[in-house]
Specification:
Layout: H1 10-29, H2 31-78, H3 82-102, H4 107-122, H5 126-139, H6 146-159, H7 163-177, H8 184-197, H9 201-214, H10 219-233
Helix pairs in contact: 2-3, 2-4, 3-4, 4-5, 5-6, 6-7, 7-8, 8-9, 8-10, 9-10
């Protein structure tokens, strides 16, 4: 047998060695590109990690700010001395304004807007209250407080005689948040009542009848039923 002949068993090893050589040549040839891609991937991972840490830190800081607002509001609301209450209000509203600027779309900002709106309602500053309730609806449309804020905005609009804005708010409430919040029966009754004030008796009947149909056991349904009977008896609706 020829001593130079390569055995079949040697061929796979030789082929494997050749692949290693080719792979090594590939790495040497494109090492700059490979290192650049690796570096870019590493930077992206680091960037995501840093971003996550920063976001987490902001959420924690916002929560702490909201807790302080809660405590400060309770202290303000429970103060019986009018002079001290006025001083607490001034300090508290300064904290509220700072929170809405620093955390416009975080939990602390949401709390700040709601507390400010409550204080404005107590003072019957309905224009300011409507603005701040709407700020919550815009900034936090999917938060639990959004439908509550929308009801607050509608009430504030009503108090100003802006029935068109109130109707728009109540319609948005029943269209977007039905089944997600309390107050929907009241919203339908309010739509009926406002429609009556604008002499849209057909619209009033539609709202009242929907309330009766969807919430037969609600206290608002009893009032709606009375209004349906009244409108029919006066010949204003069928």
């Amino acid at each position: 047998m020829d001593s130079q002949e390569v055995s079949p068993k040697a061929k796979p090893a030789e082929k494997k060695k050749t692949l290693y050589v080719k792979f090594g040549d590939f790495l040497r040839k494109y090492r700059v590109i490979i290192l650049a891609l690796f570096g870019a991937a590493l930077l992206a991972i680091i960037g995501v990690a840093v971003g996550t840490m920063i976001k987490s830190a902001r959420i924690n800081a916002s929560s702490e700010s909201a807790q302080k607002l809660d405590a400060d509001y309770q202290a303000y609301a429970s103060e019986a001395n009018e002079t001290k209450k006025a001083e607490l209000e001034k300090t508290f509203l300064a904290s509220v304004d700072a929170a809405t600027k620093k955390w416009p779309r975080q939990f602390a900002g949401m709390r700040a807007y709601s507390y400010k709106a409550k204080i404005e309602e107590a003072k019957k500053d309905w224009a300011a209250a409507e603005k701040d309730w709407q700020a919550i609806v815009v900034a936090f449309p999917d938060a639990y407080i959004a439908p509550v804020a929308l009801q607050g905005a509608a009430l504030a609009a009503e108090e100003q005689g802006a029935f068109d804005r109130a109707i728009a708010d109540y319609k948005k409430l029943v269209d977007k948040y039905s089944g997600k919040t309390i107050g929907i029966p009241h919203a339908y009754f309010a739509l009926g009542r406002l429609a009556e004030q604008t002499k849209d008796y057909t619209g009033a009947m539609t709202s009242y009848q929907k309330l009766v149909s969807l919430w037969p056991d609600s206290d608002w349904t009893k009032l709606a039923t009375d209004r349906i009977i009244s409108l029919k008896s006066q010949g204003l609706a069928k």
